[in-house]
Design brief:
heterodimer, A: alpha+beta, PH-domain like, four-stranded antiparallel beta sheet, three-stranded antiparallel beta sheet, 57% helix, flat, B: alpha+beta, 65% helix, 14% strand
């Protein structure tokens, strides 16, 4: 049971002491609430911060109404409700995320692998139930594995800021956390190896030569796409009131917000052709002599402040359209 | 849970959205605004009900949230109504208006006749 609890709270299963308030009653409640929660430290802290803010606001109101510090703490904690109830609600929310992830990642993977199996089995005529069983295995194991990682071990940065304004002089920085960078490097290495093996397979060399030619060509395409896409984890986007700076590992580019014409997510067939680790957005802007130019901004759920970046850009676009 | 509480719980999502129509607000602020409106019925609104409700509305994209330091300097999660949330609120308000109109023509009209 203890192991299971740790496994759904990786990589930092312990209570984050930064959450302490200095009020013994509130801190004891936060600690026991944390024990009821699942997910990485960042995910659990979202619930803890909200609870802490609520309890301290309630305490402040009670003190203002004439209660003593001790009584106010006690009543504020009591009125917030049992930690078990809040914990159960958070676990339910995370479970919904798990099933959503399982479906959205397991299903495409299972379909792709089943197509590969069908192509590779050729005329050997494997029975239909074999394909059905392998489809289910791919779906359940890959889907559950990825669902587990994204729900219980890996903190997607959302919900972060999504207000459509910036404070005076504020520079909004959009960046990926360290774990995303490590995963991106790992993915690039795996894809390089897979791509090289598949390319050899196309030439009839190595064990991938047993694959159908189409399977190997597709794998080379996917591998190249992923290797090209993976450095996005090292991108940094800086937004201030005047400009957006896009820093990739290969170049840095500053665009004036006044030049922007439109910010739109890439959809339809263009989206299907692109291999990206995130949602690509098309930025249309006017450069010298009023000519329109296009650049792409890839944003994913792991990036900190990505929601606010989009909210500010969209709000700017609406304001400019209104003018 | 009595019938009155059941009815109030059914209308709670609409009440929360209505509070947020006035502008972004945070958990305790929303609860405070609702407490003032609900008066003696406020007991139905428990924190363990409010937060899951806010999160559910956020997942349905009727609300969006952002974090900003509160007056204590610690992060505070603000909720704000989305365009979809405004449309949903309008729809729910229309439905409740129809219910009130129906009750006025039936139940309350009968009461008036009796008295």
């Amino acid at each position: 049971m203890m192991l299971l609890r740790t496994l759904v709270r990786l990589p930092s299963p312990g209570f984050d002491e930064n959450q302490f308030t200095g009020d013994a009653k509130v801190d004891a409640f936060l600690r026991s609430l944390d024990a009821e929660l699942v997910g990485s430290k960042t995910v659990r802290n979202l619930t803890l911060e909200e609870a802490k803010d609520h309890i301290l606001s309630a305490k402040q109101a009670l003190i203002a109404a004439g209660e003593s510090d001790e009584v106010a703490s006690e009543q504020a904690v009591a009125s917030f409700g049992p930690e078990a109830e809040h914990g159960a609600s958070q676990r339910q929310e995370r479970s919904a995320t798990f099933y959503k992830m399982m479906l959205s990642m397991g299903l495409p993977f299972a379909i792709m692998m089943s197509l590969f199996n069908l192509l590779n089995s050729g005329e050997s005529g494997l029975p239909w139930w074999f394909h059905l069983v392998t489809f289910l295995l791919y779906f359940v194991f890959f889907g559950a594995g990825m669902g587990y990682i994204f729900t219980f071990c890996f903190a997607q940065a959302k919900p972060t800021q999504s207000c459509s304004t910036l404070q005076q002089g504020e520079v909004l920085e959009v960046f990926s956390p360290r774990l995303s960078k490590v995963m991106a490097v790992g993915l690039a290495v795996i894809m390089l190896v897979l791509g090289a093996l598949s390319a050899l397979g196309v030439l009839g060399i190595g064990f991938m030569a047993y694959n159908h030619l189409l399977v190997n060509i597709f794998l080379v395409y996917i591998a190249i796409g992923m290797v090209i896409a993976s450095p996005v984890a090292f991108n940094r986007y800086l937004l201030d009131g005047q400009s957006l700076t896009i820093k990739t590992p290969f170049r840095s580019r500053q665009l004036e917000l006044a030049q922007f014409v439109a910010v739109q997510p890439v959809t339809g067939w263009r989206r299907w052709l692109r291999i990206d680790l995130g949602q690509p957005h098309q930025l249309r802007f006017r450069c010298g002599q009023g000519k329109e130019s296009i650049t792409y901004l890839v944003i994913n759920g792991e990036m900190h402040n990505s929601d606010q970046l989009l909210a500010v850009l969209n709000s700017k676009m609406s304001a400019q359209a209104a003018v | 849970m009595n019938d009155n509480e059941q009815i109030l719980k059914g209308v709670l999502d609409t009440l929360v959205l209505k509070v947020l129509q006035r502008g972004p607000n945070y958990g305790f602020g929303i609860r405070d605004a609702l407490y003032q409106q609900l008066g003696e019925d406020a007991e139905v609104l428990k924190e363990a009900t409010l937060y899951p409700l806010l999160h559910r509305l956020e997942r349905r994209e009727l609300l969006t949230s952002y974090r900003q330091p509160g007056e204590r300097g610690t992060p505070r999660k603000y909720y704000q109504l989305t365009a979809a949330g405004s449309r949903y609120l309008q729809g729910r308000t229309d439905e409740w208006t129809k219910v009130i109109s129906l009750l006025n023509r039936t139940l309350f009209a009968l009461k008036k006749e009796e008295s």
